[in-house]
Amino acid sequence: MMKHLLLTALALLLLLTSARAQIDTTGGRYRRPIFSQVTVTRAVAYGAATNIAGSNQTLLLDLYEPTGDTVRRRPLVIMAHEGAFATGNRDDQFMTAICTRLAQLGYVTASIDYRLGFFPFDSANIGRASIRASQDMRAAVRFFRRDAATTRQYRLHPAYVFAGGSSAGAFMALQLGYLDKPAEVPAYVDLAQLGTLEGSSGNPGYSSQIAAVVNLCGAVGGLTWLEPGNVPLCSVHGTADAVVPYNIGRAFGQSFSPRIYGSGVLKPRADAVGIPNVLRTLRGAPHVPYDGTTATQVAYTDTTFQTVRDFLRPLLRQPGTVLSAVARHQAEAPQVYPVPTTEDVFYLQAATAAPFRPRQAELLDAAGRVVRRFRWDQPRLAVPRGALPAGSYYLRADELPVQRVILQ
């Protein structure tokens, strides 16, 4: 127990210390393919876990590094393949392409395998498969954090670890970034059967926190997973996706699949709660239109890569991308109370970190729709509930972190 606590403390200290440094993006690095060659290390073991067959499965990844790179601390992008949690592998065509192209920019990239399989085909088992896969991705993040804290073989900057994926892999990354409370896991999944959200796939004692999520044709099981202060989000999704809905629906359109929320509704939700995000909508495009070698598929690959590239690079110039942003949000955050409330009024109290100034404010519902606008003109303001029904709402005020309001 004491050893575990010491490892955790050391990992957090490393994160906080390294958060003060930015990534150097000069000379076209992370924008142009300045490395013509990429070194690929195959079948690196990053953990192990019990799979659906009851066997202990070694978890493997392929590592992509810019050949000849001399930078001491580099950003990392961890990617996961598609396959509906039933099939697929880490060296599929698209994973190879995007990991190679990002490495040519200067990133270290990793394409991971994860535990596959579920039976019977129902909501509970699909949900469990997605949680198992996300546990494996968390172990991959911890694997690299452990390396950054010990041998430094991969020369990674632990404050700049990003996670993403395609289709099922995107589900994993979204869950890693936003599914952070056991209570958010649907009861029918029975999280206790799987352990914890972190899982036990390897490398305990290190943080699985990431700096941003790359969501390619993925979805989440609940919009309320996205909350104020969460990490930035990049989404690419086709509007004609019949496998993972662009808006709201069920995977493959099948009734056995749980209700899921695609990129088209993730964006307004992220906007409503103040999460920096981008969405590249591919009009009329099907599921994973970038996966293949036809002229059209290659064009979609280019668009997807460019979207991810242009999303990630500005984050590298923000010192302590995640930690400093969270600290700043906490210092500036207004207080909303009581939460939850059954009263006819709730109160806003401005933070004392800066002088109060009047500002416009909005109240949004869980779908991101504005249900009320008002002027916040004094440090402590009573806000009448009026006819608002019970539910979760979000307070958005100019230049301030978004806050949650729960009416019962």
Automatic annotation (TrEMBL):
A single GO molecular function term of this UniProt record: hydrolase activity
Signal peptide start-end: 1-21
Keyword Hydrolase: yes
InterPro entries linked to this entry: AB_hydrolase_fold (IPR029058), BD-FAE-like_dom (IPR049492), GDXG_lipolytic_enzyme (IPR050300)
Keyword Transmembrane set for record: no
Domain called BD-FAE-like: residue spans: 61-219
Key words of the record: Hydrolase, Signal
Record-linked PANTHER family: AB HYDROLASE SUPERFAMILY PROTEIN C4A8.06C
Entry protein name: BD-FAE-like domain-containing protein
Gene source species: Hymenobacter jeollabukensis
